[in-house]
């Protein structure tokens, strides 16, 4: 899908009746904030959880709780079976094989596993197979100006440790990647190309196929931040042809404390591990250690088993609804958000204009009112949004603001909720006395 193709063209969006039925599966949506119903528009930060996910975690904790891969007793067998069944379901959900998915505690850890794999390989760890990850001065790491700090700061660390140079693809005024600049930047010195699939601020859907083509032509390792795509778009990591990808459970109806790192098999087995200890080893002597193949080599220590089980239940729920239909519904809501924002005087929409494909979110700058004040005003009306720099300070600097207010939708969001946000947003400047 190019960044100008509307997602879900070949899928019927969820109907308002279906969304109403879906909402019954999410107990928290019945909450009231003071005397107002909760309008939850912060799903890009954390999605809410359906009863099936809550039940799966509770059933595991009550009846199956045991350490995985370590015991011969019945509970250990059951917990291991559920743990690996969850891996299978999550792998299938993102178009990967079971042994290409390693559990992490979140996507930030997953991206750090890759980044520190490069650092360890540069230090000589991992033997001959890891030499493809070794960097030296003159090598370049290319990211984008729209990255979440989780896909920026680790690469700054890699550059500091290895002497490689960090470069970035700039943004256009419309909030899209400058592809002409990308073609100039990505070349024979590029060893790593790391970028987000969907901007967590702008809602921009990046042209993955074009970026991967540029990365492949340069012989670079391609790393995808899929945090905002795995929950919202049909995702096939094999088809996208990336080497590594990271995503997070709590953004896709799952528990906190669970994320995943995808690695293309031959790359995964060659990457030196970052976190070491028990359960990821083959042989240990007092002098040296041999590590297990991937994904086990990346799963040192006690694993978040209940959380993995919960994430398995979450992807079951999403697949039952249908990712293409979810994407189509969110596309409709996202356009309604974007259009509505542009019609409010004194409110600036960051990112692609209405009519251009964008994720179901809108980050705005309200003239004369700080984002935190906007968020407080909305919260007083029961509307939950995100405020601040959304872990993307360079992006905000690019657009001349220090912070923004972001509303984001999910499969359980309604047109009425979008309209409630827009109506409240239209009242902000008058309330604070800055309207002309």
From TrEMBL:
Pfam families: Aminotran_5. PROSITE patterns: AA_TRANSFER_CLASS_5. GO terms for biological process: cysteine metabolic process. It catalyses: (sulfur carrier)-H + L-cysteine = (sulfur carrier)-SH + L-alanine. Keywords: Pyridoxal phosphate, Transferase. It is an enzyme of class 2 (transferase). Gene3D superfamilies: Aspartate Aminotransferase, domain 1, Type I PLP-dependent aspartate aminotransferase-like (Major domain). It comes from the Bacteria. GO terms for molecular function: cysteine desulfurase activity; pyridoxal phosphate binding. Transmembrane segments: none annotated. Residues 39-421 form the Aminotransferase class V domain. InterPro entries: Aminotrans_V_dom (IPR000192), Aminotrans_V_PyrdxlP_BS (IPR020578), Cys_dSase_SufS (IPR010970), PyrdxlP-dep_Trfase (IPR015424), PyrdxlP-dep_Trfase_major (IPR015421), PyrdxlP-dep_Trfase_small (IPR015422). Its cofactor is pyridoxal 5'-phosphate. Its EC number is 2.8.1.7. The keyword Transferase applies. SUPFAM superfamilies: PLP-dependent transferases (SSF53383). Belongs to the class-V pyridoxal-phosphate-dependent aminotransferase family. Csd subfamily. Catalyzes the removal of elemental sulfur and selenium atoms from L-cysteine, L-cystine, L-selenocysteine, and L-selenocystine to produce L-alanine. NCBIfam families: sufS. This is Cysteine desulfurase. It comes from Pseudoclavibacter caeni.
């Amino acid at each position: 899908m190019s960044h100008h193709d509307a997602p879900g063209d070949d899928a019927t969006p969820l109907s308002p009746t279906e969304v109403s039925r879906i909402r019954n599966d999410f107990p928290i949506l019945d909450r009231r904030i003071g005397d107002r119903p909760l309008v939850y528009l912060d799903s890009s930060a954390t999605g809410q959880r359906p009863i099936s996910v809550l039940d799966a975690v509770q059933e595991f904790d009550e009846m199956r709780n045991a350490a995985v891969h370590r015991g011969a007793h019945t509970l250990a067998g059951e917990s291991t079976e559920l743990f690996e069944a969850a891996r299978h379901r999550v792998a299938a959900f993102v178009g990967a094989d079971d042994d290409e998915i390693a559990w992490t505690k979140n996507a930030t850890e997953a991206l750090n596993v890759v980044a520190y794999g490069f650092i360890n390989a540069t230090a000589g760890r991992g033997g001959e197979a890891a030499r493809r990850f070794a960097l030296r001065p003159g090598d370049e790491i290319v990211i984008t100006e729209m990255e979440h700090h989780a896909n920026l700061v680790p690469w700054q660390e890699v550059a500091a440790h290895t002497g490689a140079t960090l470069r970035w693809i700039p943004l256009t005024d419309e909030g899209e990647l400058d592809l002409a600049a990308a073609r100039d930047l990505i070349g024979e010195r590029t060893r790593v190309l790391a970028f987000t699939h969907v901007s967590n601020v702008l809602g921009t859907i990046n042209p993955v196929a074009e970026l991967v083509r540029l990365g492949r032509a340069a012989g670079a390792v391609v790393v995808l931040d899929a945090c905002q795509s795995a929950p919202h778009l049909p995702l096939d990591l094999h088809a996208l042809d990336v080497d590594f990808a990271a995503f997070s459970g709590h953004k896709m109806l799952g528990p906190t404390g669970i994320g995943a790192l995808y690695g293309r098999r031959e790359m995964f087995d060659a990457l030196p591990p970052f976190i070491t200890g028990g359960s990821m080893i083959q042989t240990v002597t007092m002098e040296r250690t041999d590590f297990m193949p991937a994904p086990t080599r990346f799963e040192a220590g006690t694993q978040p088993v209940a959380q993995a089980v919960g994430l398995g239940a979450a992807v079951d729920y999403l697949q039952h609804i249908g990712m293409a239909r979810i994407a189509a519904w969110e596309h409709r809501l996202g356009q309604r958000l974007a259009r509505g924002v542009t019609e409010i005087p004194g409110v600036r929409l960051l990112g692609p204009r209405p009519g251009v494909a964008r994720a179901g979110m809108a980050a705005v700058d309200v003239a004369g009112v700080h984002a935190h004040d906007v968020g407080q005003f909305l919260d007083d009306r029961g509307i939950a949004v995100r405020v601040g720099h959304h872990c993307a300070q360079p992006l905000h600097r690019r657009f001349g603001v220090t912070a923004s207010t972001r509303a984001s939708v999910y499969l359980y969001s309604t047109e009425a909720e979008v309209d409630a946000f827009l109506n409240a947003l239209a009242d902000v400047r008058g309330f604070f006395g800055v309207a002309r």
